[in-house]
Amino acid sequence: MTFVQIVAMTQEYAADIVTWRYAEPYGRYDLVAADPGLFTDPANGYVALVDDGVLIGYRSFGVEGRVPGGSYDDSALDTGGGLRPALTGLGRGLGRQAIATGLAYGYERFRPAAFRVTVAGFNTRARKVVESLGFVHVATFHATTDGTSFDILTCRQFLDRR
Known about the structure:
Radius of gyration: 15 Å
Number of helices: 5
């Protein structure tokens, strides 16, 4: 069984993340063009997800979870993230565990009134996971970068269970 923990983002973890390549249609999540410094700059709100010290993913808190073209305000804390490509879609609940761990961390650290996630419209796997954690759909928009459809979902229910 995987035991997901959140630890500080390191240069080594960031260098690993920018090598990840996802199978289509998830290739839009590839970060190979990203600067590893994006992940290590504390102002960007990234943390690493590890299992027994091995990097399995990352979470972000703040504006890095937003997609250009969406309508955002300060009523919720934006959160996003990803799993190592080889660990996605296996049906083991790792995505749910990773997001739930991130929400617990985000709640303890930031005490937001609510959480908000932005999910690509085609990403039914991610949408099912966040809805299973209590997120509800509030808006749909098209990214100004490439026209991709995205859904914005918010969650207060997770906070109510704390």
